Amino acid sequence: MAAVAGAVGRVLAAGRTPEQLVEQCRALIERRDRAAHSIAVLLKPDLQGTVMTHSASATVREALIHSGPSRVVCTVSEPHGEGRPFAADLTNEGLAVELVSDEDATHAVGSVSALVLGADSVFRDGSLVNKTGTSPLAAAANEAGVPVLVACETFKLAPFELPAEGLAGWVRGGPLSDEEAFDLTPPDRIDRYVTEEGALPPDEVAALIDRTPFLREGYELLQAQTA
User: Fold this and answer.
1) Which of 42, 99, 162, 221 is least surrounded by CB atoms within 10 angstroms?
2) pTM of the full predicted structure?
C-alpha cells in the first residue's frame, strides 16, 4: 500500500543512522496523529446530518467523532465484515449508528448528506484504491447528488500512474496483498480529497504529490529491495 512506501520515504528522507531512524519513526507517528486531527477539523462542516461510510478507516473514525453527525450509516463491508466492529466502536463513542448490508448501501446512500471514505492509496490521476465495494457506492452517491469525500493523509499518495493492467498489475508489484479486498474508484466519482494539506479535487492530486518528494523516495527504496 502507498502508506508503507510514503512512511518509509518520510523516515529515510530525514535520517540515516539508527538513532535518527528511531527518532524519525517516533516523529512519523506524531505527524500521523496531527494529520488525522487536521483532516477531522477540515471535514467537520461536511459531516453534519446523516453520514455514510464504508469499511473501517481510522482517519474517518476520528473525523466522525470530532464532527458528531446526527447519524452514521456504516456498511458491513464484506468480504471481511470490518464494518461491524467499526459500527460498534462508533456506538461506544456515543454516536447514533445504523449498520446496513453492502447491497442495501447503494440504495441507502441517497438519503445521507455525505459519503465519507478512507483511502488505502491514491494514484496521480486521483483514482482511489480502497475497500472493495467503494466504487459502486461512490457511483450511487453521484447519481443521488451526494458528495463523495475521501479522508487521506499525504503519505497514502502513490507517485505514479495506475499500471495499464489496473490493480492486478499493482498487486503483482507488491503494494497490495489481496486484490479481491480492494477496488478502484475513478477520479470523476470523487468530489474532494481532504488531506492535512487541505481539501482538493482529484485533478490536483498530482501537483500535491510533486510537492511531496519523500513519496517517490519511499517507492524507489521498496522497489530496490524487491528487485
Assistant:
1) 221
2) 0.84
CATH number at residue 180: 3.40.50.10470
CA distances from 26 to 59, 90, 106 (A): 19, 27, 40
Who's near 119: CB < 8 A, 6+ residues apart? 57, 128, 129, 130, 150, 151, 152, 156, 193
pLDDT of residue 25 exceeding 90: no
Report which DSSP code applies to 132.
T
Residue 98 grid coordinates: 445504523
Range of the domain at 127: 2-226
* Exposed / middle / buried, residue 199 (Cβ in 10 Å: 0-12, 13-18, 19+): middle
- Element at 167 (helix H, strand E): helix 167-173
Give the least confident one: 5-14, 179-188, 213-222.
Answer: 5-14
| Inter-residue contact 13 to 214 (CB < 8 Å) | yes
Into how many domains does the chain fold?
1
Res 32: pLDDT: 75
- 123, 129 in Cβ contact below 8 A? yes
The four Cα atoms 51, 55, 56, 60 give a dihedral, to 10 degrees, of: -40
Residue 1 corresponds to which amino acid? M
Check: CB of residue 104 under 8 Å from CB of residue 77: no
Name the one residue in this structure whose C-alpha cell is 535520517.
Answer: 15
> How confident is the model at residue 153, as a pLDDT?
93
The crossing angle, in degrees rounded to 10, of helices 58-67 and 18-43 is: 40
